Amino acid sequence: MLNRRESRKVSHSFLCIEMELTMKSALLTVLLLAAAALPSSAQSVPQLPFESVPNPLKLPDDIHFGEIAGVAVNSKGHVFVFSRGNSIGPSYMATAAQLLEFDATGKFVREIGKNLYAWSYAHAVRIDKDDNIWVVDKGSDMILKLNPQGRVVWVFGRKGEASHYMVPPDAASTLSGLLSRAGVAVTPPANNTPRNPVPVHRDNAFNQPTDVAWDSQGNSYFSDGYVNSRVGKANARGEWVASWGSLGNGPGQFDTPHGVAVGPKDEVFVADRGNRRIQVFDPSGTFVRQFTIDVPVSATGKVVFGEARPDLKTGSQAPGAPDALCMTRGPNPVLFVGDLYPSRIYKVSLEGKVLGVYGGPGRNLGEFGWIHAIACPSENEIWVGELINWRVQKLVTKGSAPRTAGR
Fold first, then answer.
1. Is 99:112 a contact under the CB 8 Å cutoff?
2. At residue 39, does pLDDT exceed 70?
3. CA-based nearest residue to 234, from 305, 296, 178, 153
4. Considering the chain, what percentage of its residues have pLDDT values greater than 70?
5. How far apart are CA 142 and CA 134, in angstroms?
6. How far apart are CA 258 and CA 360, in angstroms?
7. In 122-165, which residue ranges form alpha helices assigned H by DSSP?
8. End-to-end Cα, the chain, rounded Å
């Protein structure tokens, strides 16, 4: 039995322990509340366990990649690359578009559409559920549907006639600057850009289009694009039925809609690059929601072109501004998104939660220079097209089994 003195010591010890536990509990509560209050940009995001496969595509000796504008994969595992290669013409405004196909082992199969009238400046290639090949050419303002054999089936848009000068959207702003520097008195309008005056939206006509996607009913959605700042829609028969959007930063407005994808509920996801966000719409164009990608920029890695601006919150060069967009197939898809700076791949849920990140700027495998295109046959295999590094990288999850053909 304890005496009075020993009893006081035991009571004191228990009191100290209880106070220490209370303080630790309070500190833990404060830390948890502080973490919850942090903006998403300050929260940690796991690294995706990808690795880059060396030399995934084998080119013939007489064909070379240029800037990789588009990449896509069909049901057989064949890879289609829309490259700004086969450049023909002067140094400025030369034709730069070449569509190449490789089999599932990376062996070169063929060039598709050689000497095609629409070729001008490659921007995107996509494959639909029937393995039709769709190409988006920013320079000719055209989007084409080709059958699996590579023959043109549908034509959207029209290339400018070669018989006379058709004014491109940047002609007025460019010429006024040239004339002024040459000493000619000019009075350019305020806000002298290719988007001023605001272009008139016309059915079946594009102004530097960027991408295409389809819903479960066979409707096509076109992001259009650098000048028109809208999304166009055609039905399953190829008939133009609607468009929505205008230049701005409000809901349903765009600043360079640069990519488009459609989810299993037929929600339309638009990569609103200049506004550094992804907007989501229903099939009629009604705004549903939007989200941004906010992941801290690491100090490691040197950009391969341009200026590093981790502080930017808007604009095409801002971290997380969606330049490339791909949605995996199936009932539970995810988005893979790529940006120009700092040239990273983000895995994102359809509600906008960033699930992982991979890569960074550089010229080596697993590094990127201006991600412009992503194909995502599965969550364990994605293909990435780069503008500055002139290459396609195949990324696979470490330790994953090889993908079999089919969807």
1. yes
2. no
3. 153
4. 86
5. 11
6. 21
7. none
8. 77
Alpha carbons 38 and 77: distance in angstroms, whole number: 42
85 Cβ partners below 8 Å, 6+ apart?
63, 64, 65, 66, 96, 98
| DSSP run (H or E) holding 11 | helix 4-37
Domain boundary assignment for the chain: 41-162+201-397
Q: Residue 301 carries which side chain, given as an amino acid letter?
A: G
Please check whether residue 319 is in contact with residue 273, taking contact to mean a CB–CB distance below 8 angstroms: no
User: 81 with 66: CB under 8 angstroms?
Assistant: no
**Whole-Å CA distances, 316 to 9, 33, 240, 278, 319:** 68, 34, 29, 13, 8
pTM over 0.70: yes
What fold is seen in the domain 41-162+201-397? Neuraminidase (2.120.10)
Mean pLDDT taken over the chain: 88
Give, in order, the Cα–Cα distances in Å from 172 to each of 15, 36, 143, 167, 179.
81, 50, 25, 8, 10
The residues, ordered by sequence, that sit 6+ positions from 68 with a Cβ below 8 Å of its Cβ are 81, 82, 83, 84, 372, 373, 385, 386, 387, 390, 391, 392
